[in-house]
Amino acid sequence: MSLRVAVVGSGPAGIYTAEALVKQSADPVEVDVLERLPTPYGLVRYGVAPDHTSIKSIANYLRKVLEQPGIRFLGGVTLGAEVSVDDLLACYDAVVYCTGAMVDRKMGIPGEDLLGSVAATDFVNWYCGHPDVSPDKFELDSPEVAVIGVGNVAVDVVRVLAKTAEDLRATDVPADVLDRLADSQVKAIHMIGRRGPEHAKFTLKELRELGEVANADVCVRPDEAVVLGGDFPRQVKGNIDVLRSWSERVPAGRPRRLDVRFWLRPVEILGTTRVEGLRLERTRLSQDGRVVGTGEFETLPVGMVLRSVGYQSVPLPGVPFSTETMTVPNVAGRVRDREYVAGWLKRGPTGVIGTNKSDAAETVRTLLADAPSGAAGSIDDLLAERGVRPVTYDDWLAIETAEAELARTLDRGERVKLVGLEAMLAACGRTVT
After folding, report:
1. How far, in Å, are 93, 184, 217, 262 from residue 211 at the CA level?
2. 0.85 cut: is pTM over it?
3. d(Cα 362, Cα 348) in Å, to the nearest integer?
4. Residue 19 to residue 15: CA distance in whole angstroms
5. What pLDDT sits at residue 254?
6. Phi-psi region of 310 (alpha: psi -120 to 50; beta: other; left: phi over 0)
7. Residues 173, 50: contact at Cβ < 8 Å?
8. Burial class (CB in 10 A: 0-12, 13-18, 19+), 61
9. pLDDT tens digits for 129-168?
């Protein structure tokens, strides 16, 4: 008798979990990877910047996992809608939750809910063609934009805002989004960090890429680039050196300007109905290492604020959740009898894509040691009874083919993403129900 496992979520954590189950189990195993969207790969498809093709190539590895015997992709199946936790436990010996961290943390300042104040994840989802975000969500009609945060996601957002539409033409950016980027009125982009250059979270490679954007002058204020002493890791030293070199640059008068700012924290987003400005306070570190305000303020005349201050997970219906850690409580991946967790939902939004592989392996070791059993029903029968027709892996391949054909039609790169559930389902001969 095969071990039957449901993996909820088809991002890297979910697919690495499926791979680990097949590799580690001494007995036959059947794994169904359930996904609410018609498309797999999670943040590899909808979170990696379109011009980062080398990172997107991870999808080729994930594809091979989904094509292994014993692993199925079931798209269009949402926990809490088409199926419940009890349904899954009736149909599988074990369930592993791998839905990641899907929303941005809020800053908790006045004006944060004004029109034009949005999560960076919404903007990333927009230029990545996520079906949850309409192509007309962003107008880019403000000459100045602020991006709060100095991590890799913030750098990606800034780089996409700074580039021309022509720079992104060969990527998989949806056609309607590319048109919006071509009409962008953005002239100045402010990337803002609460601490100093030595505390920034971006990687050296990502940082250097900003300096290579031909369409924008990258500027750093000399006083904000100062770092006093410290035995820093090689990565941090590299960041500091790059930022110092930028502080010595003379702007060349390029169409856009990118200001990388440090030691500033947002205290209020200004405006009546929409964003009209951002008030910032100069910061410093207290003796115990906390960021504190100095009472010195400045205001930027921005019409859009994108916050990129970290991801967090959201609760799943019927699954334990800690609002303190914003994760599913677990011990080495075990949540409770026959229920497990992996990825960011397990440990929080830390590490890189590859970190999910070792994380998934730990959870699977725990699962296999427990030797869970209890499956009696059939997920295929249950879904059929409810009139739910999952998106199969072959359906997903049809969507991929349609995106490649669209790219050829538009004379653009290898693929152009289809936008919206209707278009994706139509590509595989389906309709939205």
Report:
1. 52, 20, 8, 17
2. yes
3. 15
4. 6
5. 97
6. left
7. yes
8. middle
9. 999 999 999 999 999 999 999 999 999 999 999 999 999 9
> Around Cβ 337, how many Cβ atoms within 10 Å?
10
* Sequence-distant (≥ 6) Cβ neighbours of residue 327 within 8 angstroms: 313, 321, 341, 344, 345, 346, 347, 348
- Residue 50 carries which side chain, given as an amino acid letter? P
Name every residue whose Cβ is closer than 8 Å to that of residue 108 and which is 6 or more positions away in sequence. none
Cα–Cα distance, 427 to 425 (Å, whole number): 5
The total of other beta-carbon atoms located within 10 Å of residue 120's CB is 24
Spatial CA neighbour of 238 closest among 192, 197, 196? 197
CA 23/CA 29 separation, integer angstroms: 9
CB 392 within 8 A of CB 35: no
pLDDT in tens, 246-262: 999 999 999 999 999 99
Separation of alpha carbons 357 and 387, rounded Å: 35
Residues contacting 250, CB < 8 A, separation 6+: none
Which has the closest alpha carbon to 89: 345, 340, 316?
Answer: 340
373 Cβ contact list (under 8 Å, min separation 6): 3, 93
- What is residue 190's three-state secondary structure? strand
Q: How far apart are CA 345 and CA 321, in angstroms?
A: 9
